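User: Hey, quick favor. My workstation is busy. Could you predict this chain's structure for me?
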Amino acid sequence: MDEFRFSPIENKTQLFNAIEYIHIETHRLCKQKLGYLLPVAGNIGVFCHYEDEFKLLTNLRKELTDLNDHWNKKYFRLYRPIIIPAKDNLPETMYTYLYVRKPDPNQPFVGDVDFYLTPEKYKIFKQSVRSGAFHDGVTILQRTDIDFVKLSDPAIDVTAFVGSYNLEEVATAKHSN
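Assistant: No problem, here it is.
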Protein backbone atom coordinates (compact mmCIF):
# COMPACT_ATOMS: atom_id res chain seq x y z
CA MET A 1 0.00 0.00 0.00
CA ASP A 2 1.32 3.45 -0.89
CA GLU A 3 1.89 5.79 2.00
CA PHE A 4 1.25 8.98 -0.02
CA ARG A 5 -2.19 10.10 -1.16
CA PHE A 6 -1.41 10.54 -4.89
CA SER A 7 2.12 9.25 -5.32
CA PRO A 8 3.21 7.80 -7.49
CA ILE A 9 1.42 9.97 -10.04
CA GLU A 10 1.51 8.03 -13.31
CA ASN A 11 -0.28 10.17 -15.90
CA LYS A 12 -1.66 13.62 -16.73
CA THR A 13 -5.12 12.83 -15.33
CA GLN A 14 -3.66 11.88 -11.97
CA LEU A 15 -1.51 15.04 -12.05
CA PHE A 16 -4.57 17.24 -12.57
CA ASN A 17 -6.48 15.36 -9.86
CA ALA A 18 -3.59 16.08 -7.48
CA ILE A 19 -3.55 19.75 -8.53
CA GLU A 20 -7.27 20.11 -7.84
CA TYR A 21 -6.80 18.43 -4.46
CA ILE A 22 -3.86 20.73 -3.59
CA HIS A 23 -5.95 23.75 -4.57
CA ILE A 24 -8.92 22.75 -2.41
CA GLU A 25 -6.89 21.64 0.59
CA THR A 26 -4.55 24.65 0.66
CA HIS A 27 -7.53 26.97 0.60
CA ARG A 28 -9.13 24.93 3.39
CA LEU A 29 -5.86 25.19 5.33
CA CYS A 30 -5.73 28.95 4.77
CA LYS A 31 -9.32 29.37 5.99
CA GLN A 32 -8.75 27.08 8.97
CA LYS A 33 -5.54 28.76 10.13
CA LEU A 34 -6.28 32.40 9.32
CA GLY A 35 -10.06 32.55 9.36
CA TYR A 36 -10.22 33.93 5.82
CA LEU A 37 -9.05 33.19 2.29
CA LEU A 38 -6.26 34.95 0.43
CA PRO A 39 -5.57 35.28 -3.30
CA VAL A 40 -2.96 32.93 -4.76
CA ALA A 41 0.43 34.20 -5.91
CA GLY A 42 -0.01 32.27 -9.18
CA ASN A 43 1.93 29.06 -8.60
CA ILE A 44 1.06 25.56 -7.52
CA GLY A 45 3.55 22.91 -6.50
CA VAL A 46 3.24 19.16 -6.83
CA PHE A 47 5.58 17.13 -4.62
CA CYS A 48 7.13 13.88 -5.76
CA HIS A 49 8.06 11.00 -3.50
CA TYR A 50 9.75 8.65 -5.98
CA GLU A 51 12.43 9.09 -8.67
CA ASP A 52 10.30 7.53 -11.44
CA GLU A 53 7.43 9.82 -10.52
CA PHE A 54 9.74 12.84 -10.70
CA LYS A 55 10.96 11.81 -14.17
CA LEU A 56 7.39 11.38 -15.40
CA LEU A 57 6.21 14.70 -13.93
CA THR A 58 9.15 16.66 -15.30
CA ASN A 59 8.36 15.18 -18.72
CA LEU A 60 4.71 16.20 -18.31
CA ARG A 61 5.92 19.64 -17.21
CA LYS A 62 7.82 19.88 -20.52
CA GLU A 63 4.50 19.41 -22.34
CA LEU A 64 2.59 21.87 -20.15
CA THR A 65 5.09 24.68 -19.62
CA ASP A 66 7.52 26.95 -21.43
CA LEU A 67 10.91 25.74 -20.23
CA ASN A 68 12.46 29.07 -21.25
CA ASP A 69 10.01 31.06 -19.15
CA HIS A 70 10.65 30.26 -15.53
CA TRP A 71 11.37 31.90 -12.23
CA ASN A 72 14.45 30.60 -10.41
CA LYS A 73 14.45 27.48 -12.62
CA LYS A 74 11.78 26.22 -10.27
CA TYR A 75 8.46 27.72 -11.35
CA PHE A 76 7.67 27.22 -15.03
CA ARG A 77 5.03 29.24 -16.87
CA LEU A 78 2.15 27.10 -18.07
CA TYR A 79 1.28 27.41 -21.76
CA ARG A 80 -2.35 27.38 -20.70
CA PRO A 81 -3.12 28.54 -17.17
CA ILE A 82 -4.87 26.07 -14.93
CA ILE A 83 -8.22 27.59 -14.02
CA ILE A 84 -10.13 25.98 -11.21
CA PRO A 85 -13.77 27.11 -11.13
CA ALA A 86 -15.38 28.55 -8.02
CA LYS A 87 -16.80 25.83 -5.80
CA ASP A 88 -18.02 25.55 -2.21
CA ASN A 89 -17.09 29.11 -1.18
CA LEU A 90 -13.71 28.91 -2.93
CA PRO A 91 -13.14 31.57 -5.57
CA GLU A 92 -12.27 30.79 -9.16
CA THR A 93 -8.49 30.59 -9.21
CA MET A 94 -5.92 30.74 -11.97
CA TYR A 95 -2.48 29.18 -11.69
CA THR A 96 0.07 30.39 -14.22
CA TYR A 97 3.16 28.57 -12.94
CA LEU A 98 3.82 24.93 -12.10
CA TYR A 99 6.45 23.60 -9.73
CA VAL A 100 7.42 19.93 -9.52
CA ARG A 101 9.43 19.20 -6.39
CA LYS A 102 12.14 16.57 -6.32
CA PRO A 103 11.40 13.40 -4.37
CA ASP A 104 11.53 13.58 -0.63
CA PRO A 105 10.08 10.45 0.95
CA ASN A 106 10.31 12.09 4.38
CA GLN A 107 7.83 14.82 3.43
CA PRO A 108 4.31 13.43 3.01
CA PHE A 109 2.83 16.58 1.45
CA VAL A 110 0.96 16.31 -1.85
CA GLY A 111 1.94 19.87 -2.73
CA ASP A 112 1.68 23.53 -1.89
CA VAL A 113 0.31 26.90 -2.93
CA ASP A 114 1.67 30.35 -2.23
CA PHE A 115 -0.84 32.98 -1.17
CA TYR A 116 -0.36 36.69 -1.68
CA LEU A 117 -0.70 39.86 0.37
CA THR A 118 0.45 43.32 -0.72
CA PRO A 119 3.79 44.22 0.89
CA GLU A 120 2.06 46.61 3.31
CA LYS A 121 -0.53 44.04 4.40
CA TYR A 122 2.10 41.29 4.57
CA LYS A 123 4.22 43.38 6.94
CA ILE A 124 1.23 43.81 9.28
CA PHE A 125 0.29 40.13 8.94
CA LYS A 126 3.83 38.95 9.68
CA GLN A 127 3.97 41.18 12.76
CA SER A 128 0.69 39.69 13.99
CA VAL A 129 2.17 36.20 13.53
CA ARG A 130 5.29 37.27 15.41
CA SER A 131 3.16 38.64 18.27
CA GLY A 132 1.25 35.35 18.65
CA ALA A 133 -2.08 36.30 17.09
CA PHE A 134 -2.39 32.89 15.47
CA HIS A 135 -2.31 29.42 16.97
CA ASP A 136 -0.27 26.39 15.98
CA GLY A 137 0.47 25.93 12.31
CA VAL A 138 1.13 29.58 11.41
CA THR A 139 4.87 30.21 11.62
CA ILE A 140 7.44 32.51 10.12
CA LEU A 141 9.64 30.49 7.80
CA GLN A 142 13.17 30.51 9.16
CA ARG A 143 15.12 31.02 5.93
CA THR A 144 17.25 33.90 4.79
CA ASP A 145 16.58 33.50 1.05
CA ILE A 146 12.80 33.95 1.14
CA ASP A 147 10.31 35.73 3.36
CA PHE A 148 7.21 33.61 3.99
CA VAL A 149 4.77 32.64 6.66
CA LYS A 150 4.08 28.91 6.57
CA LEU A 151 0.65 27.39 7.12
CA SER A 152 0.53 23.74 8.13
CA ASP A 153 -1.50 21.19 10.03
CA PRO A 154 -0.42 17.62 10.82
CA ALA A 155 -3.87 16.37 9.78
CA ILE A 156 -3.64 17.97 6.31
CA ASP A 157 -1.22 16.65 3.68
CA VAL A 158 -0.58 19.97 1.91
CA THR A 159 1.23 23.07 3.01
CA ALA A 160 0.81 26.71 2.10
CA PHE A 161 2.84 29.87 2.30
CA VAL A 162 1.87 33.52 2.55
CA GLY A 163 4.20 36.09 1.02
CA SER A 164 4.31 39.59 -0.34
CA TYR A 165 4.75 38.78 -3.98
CA ASN A 166 2.64 37.84 -6.93
CA LEU A 167 4.65 35.48 -9.12
CA GLU A 168 3.31 37.04 -12.31
CA GLU A 169 4.72 40.43 -11.25
CA VAL A 170 8.06 38.96 -10.13
CA ALA A 171 8.49 36.98 -13.35
CA THR A 172 7.50 39.98 -15.52
CA ALA A 173 10.06 42.14 -13.71
CA LYS A 174 12.69 39.47 -14.37
CA HIS A 175 11.96 39.58 -18.11
CA SER A 176 12.11 43.38 -18.29
CA ASN A 177 15.62 43.48 -16.77
